[in-house]
Amino acid sequence: RACNNESRGALIVLEGLDRCGKTSQSSRLVSYLEGLGHSAELWRFPDRTTSVGQMISAYLLNQSELDDRTIHLLFSANRWEKRSMMETKLKAGTTLIVDRYSYSGVAFSSAKGVDLEWCKAPEIGLLSPDLVLYLDMPPEKAAERGGYGDERYERLEFQKKVAQCYQILRDPAWKMVDACQPIEDVQKQLQKIVLDNVLACRKGKPLSLLWS
Ligand code: 2DT
């Protein structure tokens, strides 16, 4: 194991529109880190395995209707219920590669017209990612890739609004990666950025909190 007791894992988040490649890139990153002897886990939000997550899943599958603010708070609660486990894992030296996080929460709800600051408020105090990787792809291109399913939000017009909301949220510290490149090229770029970050966290970079 590359990690000792004093070193912590990194909290690394992948964000981007539906069909931009987040999920496959996330699992490849975990394999890459494990191959180098690092402890790493793949996480995703929403985590549909919890009881809150099952309510979210039913909503996304159009099996239930919920008020926009209600579902927003459920997505947030789904992160809060995982927060202590997240902190425990990071402190034990495990790097977490997280497929969507608070930025999806704010981008998707504010794309429906919910006030941005209102959307951010329940996220305050969650662990802040050490690294946000934004897989950049125009909404039209993502839609062309096919595979939009039947879930709520999987429509081009809505994805365009989400893209605008991500732009508003975007922070200078985010790493923007052109997700239109071949999958192997995207992966190479992500690997380098991620490894640098994992090493910085091992050297003692402190954990911080949202929203800053
Ligand atoms: P996937 O499971 O395919 O990633 O789709 N979402 C996600 C929100 O609206 N708020 C959130 O806080 C999160 C994490 C994005 C999940 C869908 O749920 C949206 C797409």
Features:
alpha/beta, binds 3'-deoxythymidine-5'-monophosphate, 212 residues, transferase, two-stranded antiparallel ribbon, nucleotide biosynthesis, 9 helices
Question: What's this, in brief?
Answer:
One of its GO terms (cellular component) is mitochondrion. The chain has 212 residues and is an alpha/beta fold.
Describe how the helices and strands are arranged.
Elements lengths: L10 E5 L6 H14 L4 E5 L6 H10 L7 H13 L2 H9 L3 E5 L2 H10 L4 H5 L6 E2 L2 E6 L2 H6 L11 H14 L5 E4 L4 H20 L5 E2 L3
Helix pairs in contact: 1-9, 2-3, 3-5, 5-8
The structure holds 3'-deoxythymidine-5'-monophosphate.
Give a description of the structure.
Belongs to the thymidylate kinase family. This is Thymidylate kinase. Residues 14-189 form the Thymidylate kinase-like domain. Its EC number is 2.7.4.9. It comes from Acer yangbiense. With 212 residues, the protein is an alpha/beta fold. Helices cover 48% and strands 14% of the residues. The chain has helices spanning 22-35, 51-60, 68-80, 83-91, 102-111, 116-120, 139-144, 156-169, 183-202, and strands at residues 11-15, 40-44, 95-99, 127-128, 131-136, 175-178, 208-209. It has a 5-stranded parallel beta sheet, sandwiched between helices. The protein has a two-stranded antiparallel ribbon with strand order 4-7. The radius of gyration is 17 Å and the shape is globular. 3'-deoxythymidine-5'-monophosphate binds next to α5.
